[in-house]
From TrEMBL:
The protein's name in its UniProt record: glucan endo-1,3-beta-D-glucosidase
Organism per entry: Eragrostis curvula (weeping love grass)
Localization (cell): Cell membrane
Keywords per UniProt: Cell membrane, Disulfide bond, Glycoprotein, Glycosidase, GPI-anchor, Hydrolase, Lipoprotein, Membrane, Plant defense, Signal, Transmembrane, Transmembrane helix
GO BP: any one term: defense response
GO cellular component, one term: plasma membrane
SMART domains: X8
Membrane topology of this protein: Lipid-anchor; GPI-anchor
Reactions accelerated catalytically: Hydrolysis of (1->3)-beta-D-glucosidic linkages in (1->3)-beta-D-glucans
Membrane spanning residue stretches: 468-487
Gene Ontology MF terms: glucan endo-1,3-beta-D-glucosidase activity
First-tier enzyme category under EC: hydrolase
EC number from the UniProt entry: 3.2.1.39
Residues of the X8 domain: 373-457
Length: 488
């Protein structure tokens, strides 16, 4: 979910053609796979939504999945031809579950009003991965009632045939046993099996799809013994055989484990949408541009060929995760969480995305930057090491220092470089307020680009929200506190 200049005349035409190959149109237009993107907005300096929508259109993206129904973002989709999946976040599940009137009000404000304004709403996501084990069952008893109330509200508003309520779920809701790790042994998680059976049958009865988030990167991140090449699509790994099917990558194996789980739940032909799939580019030793490009090149070629999976051959509908990097996402799952974007914080493509040898992404137009200045460590400061650890941790508790972590893009900086990075990222996050480049005299402003090697010291963009980031200091993140101390 995440932030991130088109050429003119003939160049613009050629790029648009390449982008059309990169993000194929839906079956109604060409029969090719339907590839959309997740558009998250958890960043300190958002790009103007209309500019983002123009970028989507320039790249041939005709569908987006959102994580809320924020009017500022959704309004930009009006008249664009881009289909939208709106969302009621997890913190709204309780009210939606306990009071059907809340669901009716939600539909009236977020569906009816947006349809009237020209937004092409296709789905309403009820929560987001509510059954993650890390939530400790917080949403177990309210998700299904909320889903039923939302679909009923859509039906009552006259949209039930066109717009479906769904629940995007993490792939951890199903699994195969450790002693039989093949798709055919898969079933829904024991603690929620009966609930999942009820949900999938309700979705199927309403002709709604199962929306699943599949992350080959996480298989690698969570298991140090996981075979690296099984995460990709280029056939460089030993295949897995199961019930006459051959699996050469974890995505297909994971998807077909869900297919088997649905079969066992009594809905073998249920439609499946991949709600999130992608690869991060920073924050972990395996989160880098090289691997991300390898993953997307293989995945998009697979989508363009409409090969599907062994159990479900043919066209698929998927949403790449994510559009633009989001520097305010929680890092509790991992430092890579802020680096899933296909585009950087300022709307620039991170890498060449190749489909058939031609495709290239087009960036966001018209992004404006703050002045070309950086905040760096003042090496001449008296008693410079006295308050240094506290100052660096203070900066990294209020800004994004994840590129400094082990295996990340700025991991190779010197001692002083680490300090300068922390000071600068805080300075930029605070809209280059001069008070944000003090640290008791340990820092100074320079007009010399402070970037070093492959480590970018960014200059922040002008926030399209029009809100200047105030100098309000957040509680120190213990996750970053420990790691930053090791840097100095």
């Amino acid at each position: 979910m995440a932030p991130h200049p088109a050429a003119v005349a003939a160049a613009a035409v050629s790029l648009a053609i390449a982008a059309a190959a990169l993000f194929p149109r839906p079956a109604s237009a060409s029969g090719a796979a339907a590839v959309g993107v997740n558009w998250g907005t958890m960043m300190s300096h958002p790009i103007n939504p209309p500019a983002v929508v123009e970028m989507l259109r320039a790249n041939g993206v005709d569908r987006v999945k959102l994580f809320d129904a924020d009017p500022w973002t959704v309004a930009a989709l009006a008249g664009s031809g881009v289909q939208a999946m709106l969302a009621a976040p997890n913190d709204q599940l309780a009210s939606l579950a306990h009071d059907p009137r809340r669901a009716r009000e939600w539909v009236r404000h977020n569906v009816t009003a947006n349809l009237d304004a020209g937004v092409d709403v296709r789905y309403v996501a009820v929560g987001n991965e509510p059954f993650l084990k890390s939530y400790n069952g917080s949403f177990i008893n309210i998700t299904f009632p909320a889903l039923k109330n939302m679909q009923r509200a859509l039906n009552e508003a006259g949209f039930g045939q066109r717009i479906k309520a769904v629940v995007p779920l993490n792939a951890d809701v199903y699994s195969s046993p450790a002693n039989q790790p093949v798709p055919s042994a898969g079933s829904f998680r024991a603690d929620i099996n009966s609930l999942m059976v009820d949900i999938v049958n309700f979705l199927h009865m309403n002709d709604a799809p199962f929306v699943v988030n599949i992350y080959p990167f996480l298989s690698l991140y969570q298991n140090p013994n996981f075979p690296l090449n099984f995460s990709f699509f280029d056939g460089r790994t030993k295949p897995v055989y199961d019930e006459g099917m051959v699996y050469s990558n974890v995505f297909d194996a994971n998807f077909d484990t869900l297919v088997w789980s649905l079969r066992k739940a009594g809905v073998p032909d249920m439609k499946i949408i991949v709600g999130e799939v992608g690869w991060p580019t920073d924050g972990d030793k395996n989160a880098n541009v090289k691997y991300a490009q390898r993953f997307y090149n293989g995945f998009l070629k697979k989508m363009a060929k409409n090969v599907g999976t062994p159990l479900r051959p043919g066209r698929m509908e998927v949403y790449l995760f994510a559009l633009i990097d989001e520097n305010q996402k929680s890092v509790l799952p991992g430092r890579f969480e802020r680096h899933w974007g296909l585009f950087t914080y300022d709307g620039k493509p991170k890498f060449f995305m190749d489909v058939g040898g031609n495709g290239q992404l087009i960036g966001v137009k018209g992004v404006q930057y703050l002045p070309a200045q950086w905040c760096v460590f003042n090496k001449d400061a008296k008693d410079k090491y006295k308050d240094l650890p506290a100052s660096v941790n203070y900066a990294c508790s209020n800004a994004d220092c994840t590129p400094l972590g082990y295996g990340s893009s700025c991991n190779g900086l010197s001692h002083d470089g680490n300090i300068s990075y922390a000071f600068n990222i805080y300075f930029q996050t605070m809209d280059q307020d001069v008070r944000a480049c003090s640290f008791g005299g340990l820092a100074e402003i320079t007009t010399t680009n402070a970037s070093q090697g492959g480590c970018l010291f960014p200059v922040q963009i002008l926030s399209a929200s029009g809100n200047v980031v105030p100098l309000i200091f957040l509680p120190m993140s213990l996750v970053l506190l420990v790691s930053v101390f090791t840097l100095i």
